[in-house]
Structure formats: C-alpha cells, structure tokens
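We recall that each integer encodes one residue's backbone shape. We quote one record:
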Amino acid sequence: MHNIQANYNLKELNTFGIEAFSKYFCSFDNTDQLKELLQLNNVRNEEKLILGGGSNLLFTKNFEGIVLKNDIPNIDLVSEDANEITLKVGAGVNWHEFVMYCVNNKYYGIENLSLIPGSVGAAPMQNIGAYGVEVKNVITLVEAIEITSGETTSFKNNECSFDYRSSIFKTTHKNQFVISYVHFKLSKQPDFNISYGAIASELEKMKVQELNIKDISQAVINIRSNKLPNPKEIGNAGSFFKNPVVKNDIVEAISKEFPEAPIYKVNDNESKLAAGWLIEQCGWKGKQIKNYGVHAKQALVLVNYGGATGKEIYDLSESILQSVKEKFDIELEREVNIY
C-alpha cells in the first residue's frame, strides 16, 4: 500500500527550512514501489518532484503536484580487484555517510567531497565537486527509472554529459528520470589531491606528518564547517550561485582593477572567477534583511535565520545577480533549483 499524503508540509525536507506544502507526498525505498506509484492514476497526472536530501532547492511557493521522496538504501559490491572497487549505491543514501564509508574502508577518490549535503542520487545530477575533485571522475553508471514509461534504464559515464555542476539530468533529461542507483569506481591505492591551497594549509594546521585519507577528509570537514553554516542550525542550501566561467579579456580587465581577484584558468580562452568574491565586492557579505540574508563567512551562501519565505530569499538572489551584473558585467547563474 502506498501511503500518499495530502497537503504535506515540506519544511523538514528542505535544508532552507522553508515552509511550503505539496498537494501530495509519498516516499519510496525500492524501484518496484516507485514503478507501482508511477502507474497510479492520481500520480500519473500530477506534476512530480523527486526529492532527495532537499539541499539544493528553494521553494518559493507551494508545490501543486506530488513530491516523491527517494529513500532507496544500501551500498553493494559490484566488482573488486587489487587496485579498484566498484560499488552500487542507493540514491537515497546520505552522501556524507557514503563518503565516510569509503574513508573508513580506504576507498580513495571522494574524500575531498566530505560534508557535502544531500543524497547520492543528487551527486550525478549536479556533478557535485569541491576542492579539485568532481564526482564525474568516479561514476561509471547511473541507473534510473523513466517517469512516463516506468522502464529501467542506465547511463554510462560518457552518456551523462557531465559538465560544471551539470549533467543530462539537469538539461535535456530534466524531470524525465528518477535516479535509483549510482555506480562508483574507487581506487584502493592512495591518490591524494591536495592541489587546492586551503587543504594543504589546513593539513599543516592539523600538524599532519604522514598523509592519509582520514586526515584529508577531516581537513575538508574542518574547512567546510568553518566557512559554511550547518543547515540544522541555520537554513541554507550551500553555494547558491555557480562560479562563472568567462572569457580571458573580461578576466584581464578585472585583474587589472582588482589584482587580488581569485582566478582559475579553465583553458586557453576562459577562466573561472569566484562568485563569492564577486558578490563580496558588491557589499553583500554578511548583509542581513529581517530574518534572512547573506552568510557572514561565505558570500555564496544565502541563509534563512528562521521564518523567511522562499520568495524573500529568491528576491535577495535576484538583487545580488543585478548588482554583480552592474559592477562587473558578469551574469551569475543560480546553482540551486527554484520551485
């Protein structure tokens, strides 16, 4: 039996802590359950929102459809040899708990992605990344259920069109599939990436003598905890905006005027700018309006101190976009999905 609930409060299911109601709500923890749900008349005809950890969305109004909460569990072994291991992970598994499982078992490759909020199913959608590592480097296969047909299908890595904070599931296939399982190929041999300066300096602070996976993970946890607010304490969705990739002539103009601007070369023609730095230059960092605002330690993060509406936070993001456009002639893009 499917426990479909009406007029469901989504406040506890989004990390912004926004009070919004969905017309219907139901959770599922296996693919058979999901397929049965999708065939029900009162589900088939409704607009659908697949919810994982709720850490990358902002509700600006009630959702006039059905929210389907993905709770598919388990971490299973697919294959293993002396050098590598492939794991099949349920889309409902908490991302950080999966990272900790890998850290504790010395499976290398995602330790730099510690403490990212959300679930495993969201990882390929967003192509999550941090501190020089992107999840596309370790994903081999994404299993999914097509919403209209209920058919199981799978996408190999090269079929996912992975890009910066994007994939086929956010572009051409948006809202067409429910991700059920993700396959990760991880190394059993240490291959550390500490190219991001913040990690190296945090490891120094920690007085690490001999590099190991637990220390790198802990360094990332320390950095993120220090810079980003805990959604359990202050409502937020992590980075609200993407770092813009712009042509080098724009970058040169900015670095002439602001020699300290953080710039990361992408290729011969383009570089990535730090969106947080751009926002800070426009005077937004730490700005509080009533019960919401911009975080004091990281201008990329918009926060709900309690009781703010999604519309208020959206309007704040709009003001930030406009001021960055006016000052730098750069159009920032939201990383968070708006509903």
